Amino acid sequence: MNHWPFIIAAYVLTLGGTGGVLLWAWLAMRAAETKSDELRRKR
Amino acid sequence: MAEKVGAVADKLVERALAGNASAMRQFLDRTMPMPRGCIGFDLPDLRGPRGIADAQEALIVAVAARQVPSRDADYVSMDWPQLIDAMWDAEEAERKGPSVPAETPPAEAHAADTGDPALDGALRPVEAEPIVTASADANHEINREIQVRAWSHPAVLFDETVLQGPHQRPRRWLRLTWSRVGSDRAIAPPSPADARRVRLPKGEKASACRASPVTVTLERRSRCLNSGNTAERRLNGGRPCAECDCRTGRHRAFDRGAGGSHRQRRACCRPITLIPCDVSVTALVEHRIERLGSMPARRQSGHRTIGRFPFVSRSSKTPAPMHAFANPTRFLSIAKPLTPWLAYGGIVLIAIGVVAGLFFTPPDYLQGESVRILYVHVPAAWLGMGGWTGLAIASLMQIVWRHPLAGVSARAIAVPGALFTAICLATGSIWGRPTWGTWWEWDGRLTSMLILLFLYFGYIALANASEERTTVSRATAIFGLIGAVNIPIINRSVVWWKSLHQGPSITLKGSTIDMAILWPLGFTVLGFSLVFGAIVLMRMRAILAEARVEARMRRLAEA
Fold it and tell me: Which chain A residues are Cβ-neighbours of B422 within 8 angstroms?
């Protein structure tokens, strides 16, 4: 049995999931802080 | 009264926004000069050389004073997003720098402060008449009963509506503070008995108290020059040498001219000329909130107990280390620079570990190439379990110490923890197909890990069920704590229930894996851990920023 498809699938899943949640957390943080800063400037 | 406290808070917020930290401190010192703060904090804790930090904490206290009537309340109701909002304002003020020199004379600052007549009317406890002034004539009177009209004193600021919830029973105490007339500096009371606290009538609202003045008895004790032997009296040189009880029958008999032995005369007092006569007695009302009813009942009644007031230590001038990091500014000053370092460092380490694991390590003699899944599967399992451990610790901090950021951190941990648990299960399943010949086996390790994933889902659902975004409910925190029972079960499952999953490979005693295969695992475990930390910090920052927006919008709407 060729193990590499399983290995690739595991790595893609792990790296993709980690990268995805990292990107999502960063975008959410940036959006929230940008909104907060804009509100501060408007005041 | 609540409006007055709110006015104080608003004024302080405005000062923070203007970057006028020193004036704000002076303002606070002048308007609330009591040694024991009238809105629930020790002013000496707020003074000191720490500059803006003091002003920020003063600001927090002032904002919190909207709902915090007493520092003696063990658990206070406060609006944490509003504190965050105020803290950010203070942070902005600090960045702008002070606009008024710190050497501004108090008189000038006072002139600047009195621009708002309405506010001036609310903030004049210094100039207010003392409730009782014990004059020289009054010193003749022993055990004189006085009527302390505490509610008429501007220093007595309390929010009756907060304290008078259906599930709270306020206990009010009257504490007498002695100071010299014309000075806000406290002096020691003539005797410890005079510093006693007087229990206010039970079950009466403040409005009811306004109609019925509280009568307290001043127990004045004076100092004696005549006690002791001749050598001691000479040594004292006319200064007070000891305290004696003026209330004794001996003394009263002496005053009435009933005489007495020489020994008795020695033991008696000459109170009028020997004690400072220009003392004033100030009454402060203390509150103790007695929590009644169950937590759901209290929540239903609108009372939200979040925690002990986190920024002012009751026993020392510096807050406890754990609570020091509850300060949003302090926390963010660490989290903001730390986030990119964790993220970039983690990505680099992961890249090294993955490349090494895929291309520079030999295949296992038994499992073959599939052993390379180890480098992503183990970090995922570690973070799934470690995430819940961190979540449980945060839950414990919330339940026991009521740390304001504990709920935020627990909420931030939940999603990445669930993700890595799912990754662990998926990669394990993928690894099992070529190794075991099956995608899934209901053995102890896999099943307990699946239960952990369900626990994460349950925690996320419970946390999101609450309207509060900056904390989680007590039930959710308890759930997080109880769920930690599963962690040691996962760890020992391969020992207790032997099945397809291999036994513990890496223990404190060493590793059964050859170093030629093992070494990239250190990089990936550390790298994924750093990335996990970065994700948690990002989520915490996002939650705090959202809370601040919510608080600001609410304040704008109220304005």
Answer: 17
